[in-house]
Amino acid sequence: MSEAGPEALTVAIAEDNTLLRGGLQVLLERNGFVVVAAVGAPDDLVDAVHATAPDLVVTDVRMPPEFQSEGLTAAVRLREEDPTLPVVVLSQYVEQSYVAELLDSSGGAGIGYLLKDRVSDVKDFAATLRRVHAGGTAVDPAVINQLIARRRDPLERLTSREREVLAVMAEGHSNAAIARLLFVSEAAVVKHIGNIMMKLDLPPNDDQNRRVAAVLAYLRGQSA
Amino acid sequence: MCSCIQHIAGAAPRAVGPDRRSTVELALPRRVSSRSYDDGVTATPERESPPAIGRWRGTFYVSAVGVRTLVAMAVVAALGTPIAVALADGDRAAAGGRGTGGVGVLVVAGLALLGAGLPLVAGALATADWHGSAALLNRPMPGVPVVRFTEPRTLIRPMAYATVMLTLGGAAAVPGFLVVVGSAVTVAGPVLVANGDQIVIGPFTIDTLPESLLAALIGLALLTTVVLASPSIARWHASLVAQALTRPEQRLQLDLAMTARSRTRLVRAFDVERRRIERDLHDGVQPQLMSVSMTLGLALADMPAGAPGREDVVRAQDQTRRTLEAMRRFVRNIHPQVLVDHGLGAAVGELADTLTLPIAVEDRLPHRLPADVETSLYFCAAELLTNVVKHSGADHAEVRLDAMPDGSVRVSVRDDGGGGAGSAHHDGGGLAGIADRIAAFDGTLVVDSPLGGPTTVTITLAISEEDPDE
């Protein structure tokens, strides 16, 4: 049942809860990833990444010893060592203050920040990991909604449809994927995105990843 | 349009709502009444049991008190000498038929000496015994007794104490002294008798070796009894000192300080408990639910569309996800992780994002605050923001976090709603709970909410690194 072939991606997992670590491992292996390391502590993750040089890192935020944001710190550290290493951070809660730490490391290309719940949408989750590996940015819709709530005033100019597009776009989906997810035509998506960029005073950009980065930067108040 | 300003100071928490009393306040009287004044006024809840007093320390203490009492009695007797002389003189004069002029002078002089001397003796005795018992119990004792002739009420307690010591104390000290001296002599008796001396104690004359040995045994037994009884006598006397010399307001102050400390401890204990619950949920229930959700996800991934039972699995996954969502909100309300990781400003910001009202958060704190202060201020801010959303009818609100030049922290929540918060028209909207929380940290809560608005609620908290248990 495994699709692991020559191009199977290697993944290092860090999750301190053994139940979830095991589950995550099974889930990834069944979806064509090769889990080269599954560890329960941030230091072990750093060591494992050094030892196995995986294609992708998936880590929990809250891990020992202090059970604060050690996993995130480890992820940021790994990114500093290798700014091209794709890292997906999973968290029980998503808070935009955490995403800031992560996105500030090398502009957000090849970065994912997701609620742990998303894992249960197995196919989606696997697709998201592949997007991040391809240099995409995947930020949980919950974070985007939070950011939208924060920057309420200019965003009030967006229609509700445009806000939906914005949220899905921030997950790193392509125009075609957005169209499929929202049940609209791809041309409509292009139009919505154009409107969003215009209303937010952002330069039009066809590069999907840079587009996401620009929107996130805007939402976080960096280009306002 | 009166501006309704309530100022709630730390030492005297006052519930804003008419009948909102927090558990913190309710818990206090029990704790206070659980201790009695009898075993020393300085008893604190952690030190309910009186400290152990060793035999020799007790003996030393009792001896010292005895000697001081005897000296005080001697001084008083000395002060009374002129009167005694006058009385004797008067008797002689009456017998010899001489004039009584000298007698009158002596009596007046004696009364003056006693009048001025007794308070001095009382003050000296009270002060010495106070220091003695503080040293014995090794505790801070409130207020050294001070006698000031310009302030006659300061005489009352030392005089009352001295009266007890000079009468009852003397009645115990004099026989005690005689017993100890007598016993000491009898213990040395066999040696004295062997050298040909004889010992006379009251009606008894000891001049043979067997007699002296028996007497020595009795003396030894008496001395041992005194030593063994000393700790109890010492403790009894120390409690007398505390009762007689502590002014009632000092007891109250002490109680109040103790109460404030225990309240702070309680509030902190609540917060520690909240964190523990949050951790238990995060480490236990949430991962298990996640695991269920993942397993369902795996099952779904392998089920072709239209497979029998697929609908049910989809529904189960949906339900699990919703439960996780609810759990997340629940946990956030118990203790948000972002507060631990990123501090007050971030946590209040994230909270504001989840509320329906546009809320601007301005964080001007230069650095992180102590964890317990962050927790308390967070829950206060959360309560205030909830109030704004629920009751104020405001369109906008603003939270400001400022570090004040004097080292305190100020949290102010302002809204453009209808005002009247904390007035009779409202139930206090949780303000009482906030006041209790803040009072536990010796902070202040100021509510400025004129009818018609706007409302500004300001919390100011001093930051001290001091541990309340110290």
Automatic annotation (TrEMBL), chain A:
Pfam families xref list: GerE, Response_reg
Keyword Phosphoprotein: yes
InterPro entries per the UniProt record, alphabetical: CheY-like_superfamily, NreC/VraR/RcsB-like_REC, Sig_transdc_resp-reg_C-effctor, Sig_transdc_resp-reg_receiver, Tscrpt_reg_LuxR_C, WalR-like
Keyword Lipid biosynthesis tagged: no
Sites of 4-aspartylphosphate modification: D60
Molecular function as annotated in GO: DNA binding
Matching CDD domains: LuxR_C_like (cd06170), REC_NarL-like (cd17535)
Domain HTH luxR-type: 151-221
Keywords: DNA-binding, Phosphoprotein, Transcription, Transcription regulation
Domain spans labelled Response regulatory: 10-131
One GO term (biological process): phosphorelay signal transduction system
Protein name in the entry: Response regulator transcription factor
Organism: Aeromicrobium piscarium
TrEMBL record, chain B:
Histidine kinase/HSP90-like ATPase domain mapped to chain residues: 372-465
Record's keyword terms, sorted: ATP-binding, Kinase, Membrane, Nucleotide-binding, Phosphoprotein, Transferase, Transmembrane, Transmembrane helix, Two-component regulatory system
Keyword Hydrolase: no
InterPro entries per record: HATPase_C_sf, HATPase_dom, Sensor_HK_TwoCompSys, Sig_transdc_His_kin_sub3_dim/P
Matching Pfam families: HATPase_c, HisKA_3
First-level EC class: transferase
Molecular functions (GO terms): ATP binding; phosphorelay sensor kinase activity; protein dimerization activity
Enzyme Commission designation: 2.7.13.3
Native source species: Aeromicrobium piscarium
CDD domains per record: HATPase_UhpB-NarQ-NarX-like
Gene3D superfamilies the UniProt entry points to: 1.20.5.1930, Histidine kinase-like ATPase, C-terminal domain (3.30.565.10)
Transmembrane annotation, as ranges: 65-88, 100-126, 160-193, 213-234
Protein name: histidine kinase
Reactions catalysed: ATP + protein L-histidine = ADP + protein N-phospho-L-histidine
One cellular-component annotation, GO: membrane
